[in-house]
Amino acid sequence: MAIFNFQLVVSGDLASAQDATRAALEAADFTVTDTGDHWKAAHGSIAKTMFQGFLTSKDSLREVLDVKFTDLGGTVQVDLHRPIFQPGGGDDNGLVQARLHDAYKDAVGQVASELQQKGLLVSEKI
């Protein structure tokens, strides 16, 4: 489903694309954990998102991305996947899920912008 997958294509080899992507994720306040062949990038508080729901500040919304890289030879495809199940507020009526989706789009947009400013972003699907 497109709303759960974001794709960036970055110029350069795999190692330099990974370094640039890590820096861009960290600049967008994500904590990156390398779990071998892919990464987990997390931001915000799961407790605040679950218990405060729609009232949670944008900086505290819990966002988790699975990050995978595919070397295309001269460019690298960076797949950012949003897990389907995300915590919502106790009285979640869809507004929290809509807000979470917008937060993900904004966060991935920040990552893309950071890569664009460095002259590394070739294309994006956000």
Task: Describe the 3D structure.
By secondary structure, this protein is of the alpha+beta class. Helix content is 35%, strand content 29%. It has 3 helices and 6 strands, in the order E-H-E-E-H-E-E-H-E. It has helices at 14-27, 46-52, 95-117, and strands spanning 5-11, 31-34, 39-43, 63-71, 75-81, 121-125. Strands 2-3-4-5-1-6 form a 6-stranded antiparallel beta sheet, with helices on one face. Helix 1 packs across helix 3 (95-117). The longest helix has 23 residues, at 95-117. The two termini are 12 Å apart. The model has no long low-confidence stretch (mean pLDDT 79).
Comma- or semicolon-separated keywords:
single chain, 126 residues, alpha+beta, 3 helices, 6 strands, globular
Write a compact overview of the structure shown:
With 126 residues, this protein is an alpha+beta fold.
Helices and strands in order, then pairings?
Elements: E1 5-11, H1 14-27, E2 31-34, E3 39-43, H2 46-52, E4 63-71, E5 75-81, H3 95-117, E6 121-125
Antiparallel strand pairs: 1-5, 1-6, 2-3, 3-4, 4-5
Helix pairs in contact: 1-3
